[in-house]
Structure of Serine decarboxylase:
Amino acid sequence: MAGSAVDLTKMTSLDGSLSNGKSADHLTVADVESFDPTAVVAEPVPPVVQSNGENGEKMREIVLGKNVHTMCLEVTEPDHDDESTGDKDAYMASVLARYRKTLLERTKHHLGYPYNLDFDYGALSQLQHFSINNLGDPFIESNYGVHSRQFEVGVLDWFARLWEIEKNDYWGYITNCGTEGNLHGILLGREVFPDGILYASKESHYSVFKAARMYRMECEKVGTLITGEIDCKDFKAKLLPNKCKPAIINVNIGTTVKGAVDDLDLVIQTLEECGYSEDRFYIHCDGALFGLMMPFVKKAPKVSFKKPIGSVSVSGHKFVGCPMPCGVQLTRLKHINALSSNVEYLASRDATIMGSRNGHAPIFLWYTLNKKGYKGFQKEVQRCLRNAHYLKDCLIEAGISAMLNELSSTVVFERPRDEEFVRRWQLACEGNMAHIVVMPSVSVEKLDYFLNELVQGRSIWYKDENVRPPCLAADVGTVNCCCALHK
Ligand SMILES: Cc1ncc(COP(=O)(O)O)c(C=O)c1O
């Protein structure tokens, strides 16, 4: 697709200007060819904003990403002769080809988010011509026939076995993401206990606090240990004055930043010690990432419906790996009735957060679960944990503060000083911490490549003796901190 075949005048907006501020008259073929909509741009430096300090917490600077409006791909009206010239098709093909290249490059340099980018769903490309929609309840077929419920329920049964609940006792569905699982799980808790108080550790994912706002629930933030797991002493202190109201608890099976696993058994024990019988609490387990990994970790505590939990959710695009965000939500059949209503128009039941539901996602999940099976996941989990230990050891050896929780593949380390470096490796940062989530797509070679760049970068950032790496003792403990004071 030669760039010279592109009709530049067709890239203008309605007023004749381009999204980069140039007029079409001044646009050259070179401009078009070098225009990479998704490349990491060095400038402008992203704005620094203040986070909302709560309960007297110190305000912290947050670095936001760049404003996409400065480089968006405009949608332009077709010209009357487009079909005969083929110019617009050629233009769009060239944009997509460049975009694909960017995706390849960005995939190669991705480390910070818990996404397994290693998958091959070529066999499913034949399905892209179908508008597959599972609107309504997965177990009650709607009148819309282009659905994939047979795959969806197969996937749900697989997870029911993993989390130990009988087929006849559970209800669940494939969600759009882990967030939707949390929104659904917490809503179930609220429907079961309309006057219940939501308890969640302060290191819970933001979607948990969003749920509290959306449902206007009273919410108690519970303190955490240095590992990031819920501090059950503080939990007890928060429960006791509220004993007159039922408790809805979000338990983290892997926190977002530190990959910490809340001690489910201790949470249940604390509830019992505070006088909460099983009919006065509802536990939602947020297993967005680790919900699928933990069952395969030796010595790890179990997430199981044999325990008094109400629901578990997991993201499908994280450890499984999937080209579109998705997730799984499972609960006890007895809880779902409180949330359901029959809808004549659907000839199905409404029990989900969304209306239309992605019918492709269940097929992708079904495909991978079939290919890998429990054994395949077990092997991948072991490799991830091994590689995470390798990364953590290399960081410490290089004098870089780092922490790895025992059951986790999330390596927390000193935030790189250069924001450009952070963006290049797509690191997720909070305060002085950055993390890498070691997923099946993260090889030792990739980690070595990253480590080399980090060590080189630090030799430049900290060349001047007056600029020192940050102290991470408050975040990861003094034993894991390599700052000048603690090393
Ligand atoms: C602990 C936890 N819960 C929920 C979520 C939300 O998952 P999703 O991005 O699939 O909505 C995340 C995302 O990272 C997470 O780490």
About this structure: The CA atoms of residues 240 and 274 lie 6 Å apart. The pocket of pyridoxal-5'-phosphate is lined by residues 114, 177-179, 182, 205, 207, 252, 254-256, 286, 288-289, 315, 325, 327 (CB under 6 Å). The chain is about 35% helix and 15% strand.
